[in-house]
């Protein structure tokens, strides 16, 4: 079991210190890796900003289909965003929003058919206002959670909850109801900390086909707009009520899963950011005992979560092709070799999950 204080501003992933033996053990496996890069832009157009395709961070949707759109636009200001929505509304085109990496399994950014419009929030990524005394932060909807956490930390503030991966945007996070893990207080849904939105919605021709609606904490429409899967309009700006900066003390404990159902709720009530990873193939459960501690607590561990580490492209392609061939076989049933391969991948993950939050100081 490894215990340490984790800086929230870097708690999602990053380099960390590991025992020398562990470094030596895995060194041969990494000698062939030269570098890593983020996924390419999910929006690609054949002719300027027309005849476009949309994908996601995984390079493929679940049904392996190609998502197409008539055109795409990349606004850099709220005024340009209003113009983009107005143009699409005037042409009666279906609109979907794409983000920097389009980190979504389902086709949420796919307008359907070939006649829709894609609006990307890639360049709507600025900090607009910080009020450290009132714990308020206003940003554009295309800002990555990684950058939001860093900006908040620099101001002595913290976003108390977020999903595992911080390469998603605040707008996409809210639209899909993404969350962390907690039974405490208001829970772990990030939208619970939203106190204001500016959203661009379609409008009648008399209003120029698009308007900006500003919703404050007392506005009843805010509850609908902050988790709306993009069906009400395009979020332009988000205001969050944050908390004073803190660290998190994390310990991973592996137990038998025979009484997991009975332990889940007590564990969640005992630890503010508690989390459980179930490994049914091994009859084990990994409990993350994760608690808030004062920012002055020694330690600077970082959570380099295995599921979001860079992976060799060739290996990912091979795994995907293997799955395509296997599952396309008529009357497919999981073979013993398939189960063994899955068990080996889980075993590899389990060996590495232990030291993801390591005490440094």
Automatic annotation (TrEMBL):
Record bears the keyword Cell wall biogenesis/degradation: no
Organism field: Eragrostis curvula (weeping love grass)
PANTHER family membership: GULONOLACTONE OXIDASE (PTHR13878), L-GULONOLACTONE OXIDASE (PTHR13878:SF90)
Name of this protein: FAD-binding PCMH-type domain-containing protein
GO molecular function (one): oxidoreductase activity
UniProt KW Disulfide bond keyword: no
Highest taxon in the source lineage: Eukaryota
The protein's required cofactors: FAD
InterPro entries assigned to the protein according to its UniProt record, in alphabetical order: FAD-bd_PCMH (IPR016166), FAD-bd_PCMH-like_sf (IPR036318), FAD-bd_PCMH_sub1 (IPR016167), FAD-bd_PCMH_sub2 (IPR016169), FAD-linked_Oxidoreductases_BP (IPR050432), GULO_Plant (IPR010030), Oxid_FAD_bind_N (IPR006094)
One Pfam family named in its UniProt record: FAD_binding_4
Domain FAD-binding PCMH-type: 65-245
Family as reported in the entry's similarity comment: Belongs to the oxygen-dependent FAD-linked oxidoreductase family.
NCBIfam families given in the database record: pln_FAD_oxido (TIGR01677)
Keywords of the record: Oxidoreductase, Signal
Signal peptide boundaries: 1-36
């Amino acid at each position: 079991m490894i215990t340490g204080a984790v800086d929230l501003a870097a708690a999602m992933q990053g380099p960390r210190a590991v025992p020398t033996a562990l470094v030596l053990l895995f060194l041969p496996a990494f000698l062939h890796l030269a570098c890593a890069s983020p996924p390419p832009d999910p929006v690609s157009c054949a002719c300027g900003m027309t005849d476009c395709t949309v994908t996601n961070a995984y390079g493929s949707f679940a049904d392996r289909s190609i998502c197409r759109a008539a055109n795409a636009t990349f606004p850099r200001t709220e005024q340009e965003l209003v113009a983009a929505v107005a143009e699409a509304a005037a042409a009666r085109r279906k609109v979907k929003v794409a983000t920097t990496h389009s980190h979504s399994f389902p086709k949420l950014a796919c307008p359907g058919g070939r006649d829709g419009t894609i609006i990307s929030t890639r360049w709507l990524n600025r900090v607009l206002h910080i009020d450290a005394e009132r714990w308020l932060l206003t940003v554009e909807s295309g800002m990555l959670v990684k950058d939001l956490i860093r900006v908040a930390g620099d101001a002595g503030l913290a976003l108390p909850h977020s999903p595992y991966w911080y390469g998603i945007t605040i707008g996409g996070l809210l639209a899909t109801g993404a969350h962390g893990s907690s039974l405490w207080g208001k829970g772990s849904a990030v939208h619970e900390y939203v106190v204001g939105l500016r959203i661009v919605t379609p409008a009648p021709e008399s209003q120029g086909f698009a308007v900006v609606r500003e919703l404050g904490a007392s506005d009843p429409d805010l509850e609908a707009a902050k988790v709306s899967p993009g069906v009400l309009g395009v979020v332009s700006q988000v205001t969050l009520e944050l908390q004073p900066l803190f660290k998190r003390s994390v310990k991973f404990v592996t137990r038998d899963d025979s009484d997991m159902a009975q332990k889940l709720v007590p564990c969640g009530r005992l630890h503010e950011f508690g989390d459980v990873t179930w490994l049914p193939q091994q009859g084990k459960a990994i409990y993350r005992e994760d608690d808030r501690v004062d920012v002055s607590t020694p330690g600077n561990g970082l959570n380099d979560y295995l599921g979001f580490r860079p992976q060799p492209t060739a290996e990912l392609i091979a795994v995907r092709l293997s799955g395509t061939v296997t599952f396309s076989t008529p009357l497919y049933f999981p073979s013993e070799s398939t189960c063994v391969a899955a068990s080996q991948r889980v075993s590899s993950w389990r060996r590495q999950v232990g030291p993801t939050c390591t005490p440094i100081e």
